[in-house]
Amino acid sequence: MKKLGWTFALAATAALSLSACDEAGKPAAATPKSPPIATVNGKPISAEAFDIWVQSQVQKKASELTLEQHKQAVDAIVNLYVTAQAAEKEGIAKNPDTAARLELDRMNILANSLFEQKVKDTQPTEQDLRAEYDRQIASMPKQEYRARHILVPTEEAAKAALAEVQGGAKFEDVARKVSTDGSKDQGGDLGWFAPGQMVKPFADAVQKLAKGEMTAAPVQTDFGWHVIRVEDTRPIEPPAFDQVKDRLGPMAQQRQLREYVENLRKTAKVEVKAEKPLAPAPGEEPAAAQQAPSPPQGGGAPSP
How far apart are CA 26 and CA 18, in angstroms? Predict the structure, then answer.
């Protein structure tokens, strides 16, 4: 039988820190719902912690494992506890970096557990969904565009292409000849798009043009230099409420969570001690950036 690849990933060890802490910062004992699956030097491994660890490793519940897989999992988590206890004896937990990571893991688990509980407790009403629908529709662009462009690597090449079109050459012929974009075979035709589908400098330029107009000067984006001509415009028809109703719930819940966190922040006593964060080592993210919790992410504006 093929063995599962049980690991001692940091995410798995974090999953074992679900209990709250007392004022001294030490984990407070949680009352387990089931007998422990094992003990290590007198320390019980609860069935709840075991199940969470198994799910973090193989995306299955412990009850779904075969007898052989269950044995492998027990052996692996016992090894994890043995190793963690050895680390505690050697004072690893007192290392400033390790202590900071443990604290951030605990904060992250608590915050995300709170978010999960709030999601369960605050199911959006029909009124909430209607309000979210109105907000999303209001934020949607009102018009979409069909445009052609010529994309070249330098401003000089873009100016030369622009001058050629202004001199009477067909836009699509110039695009086929000099453009570096995949649309060159279609004469630079990009088809229909909403402004949000394009990078901002390109979208901003397009929205300033009427049907048949071309940019007076090349437009720079991260892709290079563009000469753009708008071929046509048409209004965007928003989807009906019933068509996107199922997608509005997560959006409304995320908004409620953001408002909840904002209200918590308003009532909290926050004292920022450092004007500027310490610079991380080259190629390394600050620990806070890696661990900072945030409400579950929802989608953007609803689309058909």
Answer: 12
CA gap 233, 172 in Å, rounded: 18
Considering the entire predicted model, what is its pTM?
Answer: 0.56
What is the b/e burial string over 167-202, where b = at least 16 CB atoms within 10 angstroms of the residue's CB?
eeeebbebbbebbebebbeebbbbeebbbeebeeeb
Q: Is the domain of 20 the same as that of 47?
A: yes
Residue 206 is assigned to a structural domain of this protein: yes
* CB-based contacts of 217, cutoff 8 Å, min separation 6: 159, 162
Overall number of domains in the chain: 3
Same structural domain for residues 84 and 135? Answer: no
pLDDT tens string 153-191: 999 999 999 999 999 999 999 999 999 999 999 999 999
Domain membership of residue 35 as a residue range: 10-94
Distance CA 80, CA 6 (A): 10
Whether residues 247 and 222 fall in one domain: no
- Burial grade of 42 (CB within 10 A; 0-12, 13-18, 19 or more): exposed
Distance CA 243, CA 128 (A): 16
Structural domain includes residue 194:
yes
* Strand ranges in 236-278 using DSSP code E only, listed in sequence order: none
Does 79 reside within a domain?
yes
pLDDT tens profile 104-125 = 999 999 999 999 998 888 889 9
Whether residue 133 is found in the same domain as residue 254: yes
Contact between 105 and 21 under an 8 Å Cβ cutoff? The reply is no
